[in-house]
Amino acid sequence: MHFPVVPLDAGLLDINGTLIAEIIAFLLMLGVLARWVYPPIVRAAEARQNQIKQQLEQAEKARQDAEARLNAAQEEITKARVQAGQIIEQANRAAERIQQEAQEKAREEARRIIEAASRDIDAERQRAIQAIRLQMADLVTEAVRRIVGESLDGERHRKLIEATIEQVEKEPSATE
User: Fold this and answer.
1) Which of 3, 77, 146, 152 could form a disulfide with 157 if both were Cys (CB 3.0 to 4.6 A apart)?
2) Lowest-confidence pick of 2-11, 42-51, 59-68
3) Is the pLDDT of residue 3 over 70?
4) Comparing C-alpha atoms, which of 136, 145, 128, 143 is closest to residue 164?
5) Cα–Cα distance, 104 to 71 (Å, whole number)
6) For residue 36, what pLDDT is reported?
7) Residue 166 and residue 176: Cα distance in Å, rounded?
């Protein structure tokens, strides 16, 4: 049988048998694609999407871990700086204490040396005064002997020497 072809004026689109065959072929191709081609493509896309989602989650977790490690490292650095500051402060205090102790020991040593020198000077002065007294006593005895022309007895001799020594000690130049 044969169908008469009736031309329809539809404007731009002419409906004929070719159009119907093309629509049927399109629907058949769409069915084949939907049944056998699209499901593997959709599964692959969903798998890729899940993989990307997992990678993003892992990246976020890694970022959080890195931030936590960074914060822990910064805390350790802060603690180390504080501890270093304390150590430096302790070292400075120890150095100051050692310096003060050394200065105190030096002052004590200087004071001890000055006292010893002062004692030595006083002892030497006393020895010099004693030597001068003895020389003066000898000089006075010799002068008296020459003046008097005779030898004095022990008692007069002693009194004369003591009086002379007392007189010499009273003079300002004798004790200086």
Assistant:
1) 152
2) 2-11
3) no
4) 136
5) 49
6) 93
7) 15
